[in-house]
Description:
5-stranded antiparallel beta sheet
Amino acid sequence: xxxxxxxxxxxxxxxxxxxxxxxxxxxxxxxxxxxxxxxxxxxxxxxxxxxxxxxxxxxxxxxxxxxxxxxxxxxxxxxxxxxxxxxxxxxxxxxxxxxxxxxxxxxxxxxxxxxxxxxxxxxxxxxxxxxxxxxxxxxxxxxxxxxxxxxxxxxxxxxxxxxxxxxxxxxxxxxxxxxxxxxxxxxxxxxxxxxxxxxxxxxxxxxxxxxxxxxxxxxxxxxxxxxxxxxxxxxxxxxxxxxxxxxxxxxxxxxxxxxxxxxxxxxxxxxxxxxxxxxxxxxxxxxxxxxxxxxxxxxxxxxxxxxxxxxxxxxxxxxxxxxxxxxxxxxxxxxxxxxxxxxxxxxxxxxxxxxxxxxxxxxxxxxxxxxxxxxxxxxxxxxxxxxx
Length: 388
């Protein structure tokens, strides 16, 4: 394990929504990516992000940063820098903290473990220490969920015959017994890989990526993926891939596997809430005034809280964050967790600071923290309904 220095945040970022966890100046040609959040057993919060862009090391050995809040998100300090960690999600299992993703852009699948709350981490040098799969892989900071005695995590292979974004990605699901050593590659099982198919969505299928393991209300696991279909300027879609109970088979029905989903063209995380028997998500919803005129996956200036009882009818309950400009403002890649009656989340936020703006909506300059207090009260109203 390696120890890293601790840095306390001092700067005040007036006007930026939420609590700023970290800022990356656009002049560095490095941008905030892959926000992740989890809650430690003692109640402290952990947040993470990686760095991407021309000035970063994303294609050799990517860098992720780890932050800690001891006061429920009011302030944060950096406690670690992780080399060889990209597109990653932090999560707690047992009494330990883990982070899982790839080691670089289209790199190996890796997992690291911390036994001291995020200050020091293991190094994945082989199949017994966290190097889970070697090759070209893709993912995002997606949930690691527990069901039927297993942990489940969706991933994508990036080794398709056509080496082009979207075309190269095939989806699969990984899983491991709850009581197994998560750092031992032989303990993990995975399904077959479903490759890209250009015939889907009447030929307007650009990609399925950033799969999301979701526990359904009938206790099954499905993999719900972001779908890229740039020609449709009125609807966004997600794909629902079925996972067999033994965790060895992925299957997809192209006739009914696609669902209209608000924000489906951008990264999202869906979680089933047993308290309310609803599926919940925080998404980049596209307001009606933008539909029909722009490519919807590029509209990320609006962040909304949505829910569904059946994964088919989606209610847009409330706008959480919004800016009128769609070119240089975005609230991307939200990762969120339940925290009692509240929801806490982090956002890859592109926003103005002093005399500088973000490079664009995608290449964000902030990692920000937010909270939805008493989220159940939002179910009382809806501003839009998305039906199949």
